[in-house]
Predict the 3D structure of the following.
Amino acid sequence: MTDLTKLTEHMLHKEMVTDVCFSANKGNLFSVSQDSLLKLYSLEQKQQLRSASVSHMALSSCIVMNDKTVVVASWDNYVYVYNMEYGRVTESAMAHEDAVTDLSWKNGMLATASWDSTAKIWKLKPRGDKNGFSLHMELEHESGVACVSLDSEGENLVSGTVEGCISLWKLQNAFCSGQFHIHKGSVSAVSFSPDGYRVASCSEDKFLKVLDVQTGTVLFMKDVGSPMRCLSWDGATVFTGCDSGSILVWDLLSAKLVATVPAHSGPVTCIHVSDDGSLIATGGSDGKVVVWQSGEP
């Protein structure tokens, strides 16, 4: 069982927090919101270091590409590259024909999802001291794509749509290796297991499901009684964020719910686990960002 201890809680945004992510050294925390702001918060100094207005519309996702660079997705169809040293956007690209809903980053590959019914794969293209992206492939879907996740090698992609479909893609040849209509509501989040053999998904339909990538078999399914907005996979543990305001902690080895942690006064809208699994950040519709210490009791 994993224990969560609240380390810090801050009202960083005026509207719903849509994504959170740690810097590589866990010293800083980035957050984006429907208030169109990117925030940088220092966990060491316990204060906000930067607030950047990236777009005139809501921001949906952020990833830390390296210590200097954060990539941000927006409802204005653009993806922005924000340089922390310069304190400004250094690159922007109209990535889709509708709102960009999610980002995933592995091994120099950027995946983007959009309500325009596509997921796209971009390759990092260095330009001197700046970073740009060139389109590598476009993956067509039958409905809007709500979420995407690359596996640890950046060789496979899983996507989830607003109609409840999970798709698996082999990026070597842009081949769709499977489509699974396993949710009755929009898929909120998808994630590969660390070994790449399973995919976890959660949905507005209140179900958490785990899919075997090779066979397409649903290995685990649970109605949690509340719509889920987000999930993060760490080893044998899956964390999900619910509209009830709680974080649910699942041990997939025993297929059991091991903890229910009250986190926000409204829906938990995003969750991120640090690379070493020691810290967890959550964001909520209440505008708060909370950082938790993870440990074994």
Notes: DSSP finds no helices and 28 strands in the chain.
